[in-house]
Structures are given as C-alpha cells and as structure tokens.
Design brief:
Order of helices and strands: EEEEEEEEEEEEEEEEEEEEEEEE
Number of domains: 2
Number of helices: 0
Low-confidence stretches: 1-34
Shape: elongated
Strand content: over 45%
Helix content: under 10%
Largest sheet: 5 strands, mixed
Structural class: mainly beta
CATH architecture of the largest domain: Sandwich
Radius of gyration: 23 Å
CATH class of the largest domain: Mainly Beta
CATH superfamily of the largest domain: Immunoglobulins
Number of strands: 24
Distance between the termini: 37 Å
Length: 278
C-alpha cells in the first residue's frame, strides 16, 4: 500500500495506496500538518443544590482521544457521557480535561451548596449549543449577595439577577459569574458550545522520501452514527478542496477520510472523529 500519515484539523490520519502486491508502491506524507486541539464541554443538571443532594454531570469532547476528571470527581472518563455524583455537601468544582493529538482542552462547572446565610448564584445558558454565529441567552439568579461580576466570555458588574444575550458566537465560550456577599462568595460557570457543519483537512504535499506529491486526485468523506460503521460517503474530485459543508441531518456522526490518487487508488480509512451537526 502507498499511504501518508497526516494529522489534520479533523484529526485524520490519512492513508492512500494501490492494492497490496502492486509494484508501484510508495509512501506519502503531508509535511508540517498540525492537528486541531481537543475541546470539551461539561454541564451540571443544577449549579445550586441542597446539602447532600445529587447532580448529574454530562459531557462531550471533540478531537480527543482520552479524558481525565478532577476536582469533585476523579478517574478516566469516556469521550462523552453522563455521571451522577451523590451527597454533595460543600461547594464543589468539577473539572474534565481531554487531550488529543493536537493538544488538550479543559472544561469545568461549579456546583454550590445552598446556604441560608452565604451567597448563592445560578447561571444557565439557553441554548447551551448553537450553530456558528448563533446566539444564546444567559440567565442568572443570586441570593445573599451584594455585588456580582462577570468574567470569561463577558465582563463588568451585573445585577443580582437578569439575562444577557451573548451575541453571535464563533467558538466555544465559557461565562463566569462571581457574586460576593456578607457570608463570602459564590461562583457559577456555564459554557456555550458552537457547533459547525464544516469539516476541514490539509492535503499532503510531498512523499516521505521528500519528493513532491503530484498525483493526488481527491478525497472521500465517510460518516455513520456508529464507530467505524459508515453508511454515507461523499466524493471530492479535486485535490485543492480541503473542506466540506456537511449535508447530513442534524445529529452526532463519526467522520473519517480517505484520499484517492490519479489511478483511482483509495487509501485506508483515517482515524475518525465524532462531530455533532447542528
């Protein structure tokens, strides 16, 4: 087989080649490709609970190969899922760090325990996931507070309760609200995730022996709702096209890529990425 190894913004390692046994075998690689960093979103079913209550944490990662939790929970986590944490008796920050070939991403959420004397604050985003240039509305409430200050994706002094439009979003954004009161302070966090319909990659430019790659003819994008079980495909008959605006119905899909040379030889599947299409 002739193939290349490439880490691209879709985290695709692409292999292309003739059928095994052919004499014109060669290995091709993309030079100086860079992978997209991993990103992760983490949500709590409630950000203020009564002492001893439970919360359900839900998370989703992109471009990641492993996830590790810390703070109020611990251990290796799946790339997406949910988990109920019981008996929360104090303000607790939950963190989830996910990493991939292009780097890591971190998400966190603060769950506060209601205190009749101390400050409490809740912060919500609706919707929590938007398309590119979509907007979300932040809504918050606080109790036993004198001042609230925004941070992260917004800033400035905020009233004790209210709502705020994020405006058009082009990337995942975390919003933080810190409220102070006579009994201390409370912090609430919420992340709005931006979902894109576009997948991108970078074409190889040379063979591993340093010679120019001159016969790249195009790519084939594959997708399916189950890992490595692809039910759809789209052929791109141009080596110069390195992005595709996904036309599948909204949902979560596994995507992989192959490359095709001028003789019609198709590569092995790249590694895959799970992507949510809005």
């Amino acid at each position: 087989m002739k193939y290349w190894r490439s880490l691209v913004p879709l985290l695709l390692t692409i292999s292309v080649g003739a059928c095994s046994g052919e004499s014109n075998q060669r290995t091709v690689v993309k030079n100086s490709a860079s992978a997209a960093p991993a990103s992760v979103s983490l949500f709590a079913s409630a950000t203020v609970v009564e002492p001893g209550a439970s919360v359900t944490l839900t998370w989703r990662s992109f471009n990641a190969t492993e996830c590790q939790s810390s703070g109020g929970w611990s251990g290796v986590k799946t790339l997406s899922g949910s988990q109920t944490v019981a008996n929360i008796t104090r303000d607790t920050r939950f963190r989830l760090s996910c990493s991939g070939a292009g780097g890591g991403g971190l998400a966190e959420v603060m769950v506060n325990v209601a205190n009749s004397d101390g400050p409490n604050v809740t912060l919500r985003a609706s919707p929590a996931e938007v398309a590119v240039n979509g907007t979300s509305t932040l809504t918050w409430d606080s109790a036993n507070t004198s001042t609230c200050t925004a941070g992260g994706g917004w800033s400035g002094t905020q009233p004790s309760s209210g709502d705020f439009s994020t405006g058009a979003l082009t990337e995942d954004t975390t919003y933080r609200l810190t409220c102070e009161g006579p009994g201390g302070s409370a912090v609430a966090l919420v992340t709005v995730r931006v979902l894109s319909k576009t997948i991108r990659w970078q074409a190889p430019t040379q063979n591993v022996d340093g010679s120019p790659l001159t016969d790249l003819a195009g790519f084939v994008v594959y997708w399916g709702t189950q890992s490595r079980n692809y039910t759809g495909s789209y052929t791109i008959n141009s080596p110069g096209i390195t992005r595709w605006d996904v036309t599948v119905s909204p949902g979560s899909y596994y995507f992989a890529l192959t490359a095709v040379d001028s003789d019609g030889n198709e590569s092995r599947y790249s590694n895959q990425v799970l992507k949510t299409i809005p």
